[in-house]
Amino acid sequence: MSTPKQEPVSLWKMRTYRLWFTADTSDVMAVSLRTFAVPLIAFALTGSESTAGVVVAIESTLVLVALPAGGTLIDRYDRRKLMILLGLAGALLSLIAVGLMQAHQLTIGLLAAVVVAFGLLKGLIGGSNDAILKSLIPTSQFAKAQAVREGREACISLCGSAIGSVLYKLASSVPFLASGLLYLLEAGSAFLLPGSPNRQLASKGEKPPEHTSAAPSAFRAFARELGEGVRWALTKRRFVLITVIGALLNIAFALVETGTQLTLIGRKTDPLLIGLLDTGMGATALLGSLLAGWLLTHIPTGRLLAYTSFAVCASYLPLLALSSYWAMLICLSLTGLLLPGLNAGLCGFIFGKTPDSMQGRANAVFETALGLPAAITPALTGFALQLPHGFTLVVALAVALTIAATALSALTSVRTIPKPQSWEEASL
To answer: What residues form the membrane-spanning segments (predicted)?
Structure first.
């Protein structure tokens, strides 16, 4: 007589998951409020849009530069302690900014220094929130956790800017004050999580990375572990394929989003209407995140990636012939509806199957591969828009990239990735 299959425990009944979700959400909201305020403060200090843009770009650039080293740090040290450090350091930096503004001592140079510190902090240990999750929940629940995260991201995308604008109207320092309090909440929630994942690995017979006090030896060990992480990722066929698929779709999305915004700016479109594009994508992403959980449990993950990649391609096709504001709004909103399921499948399988001891480095490889091309995309888009029929050219390139992503999803071993319930038996 066969034993009935046991239903997985709800994520929300797991105390560790609730604590992690509180910490991670606090971090994301703190970043949203802070990054909303930075360009406004920079412009208020200098009166220069270009300077404000440079200050904003500093953090994203430093995050990408620091990610590889950060992934190795996260795999070497207690992730719970790193989360606590992230929260405390974020709170301290936020309160320093508040103090400088309240004392009327903040200059553009000091603001840039604060942004540099935040960029390094996020790049070096910001991934500890992601890396610790594997040790807190079963692999079978990882896809669901990713779908919940997509919904959370959509909610913050919808309300983050609105809340930031209200706080900024109270005083320019208030968004930083709020982010400081959120960072403290992150630290407090992380403090209540279980101990070091590395100690847990050791108890399971997995040897955590060794480190030594001798500086040259420590540096060599650090470099060796970073190299091991990159080599590990490159030897996992599906990891590489999914990373390439994600990069293609990420570049395509950046092309269409940036191309749309720059085109509308060039037409002197009302800024409120331009902002409505993000609102539309956020609203449909929230709906898509609710749908993502159902899709992941009813459609094999590999097929879902192929279907959604094709659907993203189809959502861009009308823009080859139409370039009105409403066509742009509808097409981008449709993309927002599709991306949560796609992201939950991509990230859920990769990090659900990545060993605890490799979570930080695997995340660094994945995020760098997706982030670097997307960081270059706006410059390429701006150049392309100067050409005859520039917007159509940008959309055509995005369509070509999504076709390539669909082909990789449908014609390679990615297609055979099963539903999350069977991920344990699937190979990465």
So the answer is: 21-45, 51-70, 82-100, 106-125, 239-256, 276-297, 304-321, 327-352, 364-385, 391-411
